[in-house]
TrEMBL record:
High-level lineage: Bacteria, Bacillati, Actinomycetota, Actinomycetes, Kitasatosporales
Any coiled-coil regions, as ranges: none
Keyword field contains Nucleotide-binding: yes
InterPro entries in alphabetical order: CobQ/CobB/MinD/ParA_Nub-bd_dom (IPR002586), P-loop_NTPase (IPR027417), ParA/MinD_ATPase (IPR050625)
Keyword ATP-binding among UniProt keywords: yes
Signal peptide: none
Example GO molecular function: ATP hydrolysis activity
The CobQ/CobB/MinD/ParA nucleotide binding domain, residue ranges: 142-180
GO BP term (any one): negative regulation of cell division
Protein known as: CobQ/CobB/MinD/ParA nucleotide binding domain-containing protein
Keywords: ATP-binding, Nucleotide-binding
NCBIfam families the UniProt entry points to: AAA_KGGVGR (NF047398)
This protein's GO CC annotations: cytoplasmic side of plasma membrane; cytosol
Length: 446
């Protein structure tokens, strides 16, 4: 194999492969670019209806390998006619059209198939379809790119607010590495025997039937027929048996070949369904489900936002880390062709807003948010129609929902301080957030 004089790096490999794919598609053959888990690329040509001369394939293969160096796969060019099951690649649901490429008459298409160990579910956006009693439960995911932005506390406040309005609310604590909302809502001695972690482990073996997964929130008085249920990350365990949480955590993310729920994303979705069904058996169908997702670019967050929710509340403070992280995530959605679908369910939350300079802070925050979110918006020229809200549009995904910063909340032990959420400074900090998110979840279109 002839390598380029300078090493090709990961970020350079795909653009280089695309230049070869463009020339190949110009000959009229459909092209599929495939990237493996190490980042190496292969050029797959669909020659089942368009025959390709051997001399051409040899030339493309040599150009592909010499252009990509070590990022060319061991089999850099493959023909559909030589594959045992070509539709496993060419008809894969994960293959997406190359962004920005529109073939002209006589040219072939170019599609992209990316294989990853983790994170693939960020690019698989879908709408929840599960129904209980013929009506789909509304789900909202609460997510922060970085931890420490008050996401779990906001989940607690929102859950109690919605329940006091007469809704049956279920909170699912998906922050498995650092359970947050569960401990805030349920006293330790009132936990169900099993948690989300158990559902994920047992379902990998088809052993999930009969798990006790939900409990009613403690220290919450029923009002207006409202109910508040919690599916914690961890349970209390069986009497007399050690609850090996860390050992379970080490196993939840692995896919299990040959099982109907072997894929982690499928198991996580089934776990949320099981919790909803458990509440329905105990009482009634949940009106609202809050998914307290873990922070970072993680598979749990990917499934919660891309697959499980109707609304995703994205938490952040106005700093470079927040915007750099979300921009990377938005670019991934853009490159996978998911921007038009995912942007409809996003809304930014400005956490820890300084009360002393609230208007000025939020104005700057909104400008920075628009710069970041514009990655997901359509590029429009005069006369074009599409989705490109202005920076000042208060209904746009980038428009921040504020939560005010209160020094009294720093270091507060919420579990050991009953009634802390009823204090005036807490209500003032969350009033706007609760009103706006409630309208989005309950009164707004879904």
């Amino acid at each position: 194999m002839t390598f380029p004089p300078d090493p090709v790096r990961f970020d350079e490999a795909r653009p280089r492969a695309l230049t070869v794919a463009l020339d190949t598609a110009a000959s009229g053959v459909d092209v599929l670019l495939v990237r493996d888990i190490f980042g190496r690329l292969s050029l797959l040509l669909d020659d089942r209806s368009t025959k390709v001369a051997t001399a051409k394939t040899d030339a493309w293969r040599e150009r592909f390998t010499s252009t990509l160096g070590r990022y060319a796969a061991d089999r850099p060019l493959l023909l559909a006619s030589s594959l045992f099951q070509p539709d496993a690649y060419f008809a894969s649901a994960r293959a997406v059209a190359e962004l920005g490429y529109v073939p002209e008459v006589g040219q072939g298409s170019i599609r992209w198939l990316d294989n990853t160990v983790v994170g693939g579910d960020w690019a698989r956006v879908s709408t929840p379809e599960v129904e209980l009693g013929g009506v789909r439960t509304a789900r909202t995911a609460l997510y922060g790119f970085k931890g420490g932005v008050g996401r779990s506390t906001a989940t607690f406040m929102l859950a109690k607010h919605l329940a006091r309005q007469g809704n049956c609310v279920l909170v699912v604590d998906l922050d498995l590495e650092s359970p947050g909302a569960g401990p805030l809502l349920v006293a330790e001695d009132q936990l169900p025997q099993y948690g989300i972690i158990d559902q994920l482990v047992e379902s990998a073996l088809g052993n999930e039937e009969g798990l006790d997964l939900v409990a009613q929130a403690t220290h919450f008085q029923l009002q207006n027929n409202g109910e508040l249920w919690v599916a914690p990350a961890r349970g209390c365990g069986a009497p007399g048996v050690e609850y090996a949480y860390v050992d379970k955590l080490n196993r939840v993310y692995a896919d299990v070949p040959g099982h109907g729920q072997g894929d982690f994303a499928d198991r996580l979705e089934a776990a949320v369904h099981a919790c909803e069904a458990a509440v329905a058996r105990e009482s009634r169908r949940p009106d609202v489900v809050l998914l307290d997702s873990r922070a970072g670019i993680h598979d749990i967050a990917a499934v919660a936002i891309s697959r499980l929710c109707d609304l995703a509340l994205l938490f952040g403070s106005d700093n470079g880390q927040t915007w750099a992280g979300y921009r990377d995530l938005f670019k991934a959605w853009l490159s996978s062709g998911q921007a038009p679908v995912i942007r409809e369910k996003l809304r930014m939350v400005a956490s820890m807003v300084p009360d002393a300079d609230r208007p000025g802070y939020l104005e700057i925050f909104q400008d920075h948010a628009w710069e970041c979110f514009s990655v997901l918006y359509d590029d429009l020229v005069d006369g074009d129609t599409g989705f490109n809200p202005s920076p000042e549009d208060d209904s746009a995904p980038h428009s921040p929902i504020p939560i005010l910063f209160s020094a009294e909340l720093v270091g507060l032990d919420a579990v050991a301080t009953p009634g802390w959420d009823e204090r005036a400074f807490v209500r003032a900090a969350y009033d706007s957030f609760l009103e706006t998110t409630t309208n989005l979840m309950i009164e707004g279109p879904r």
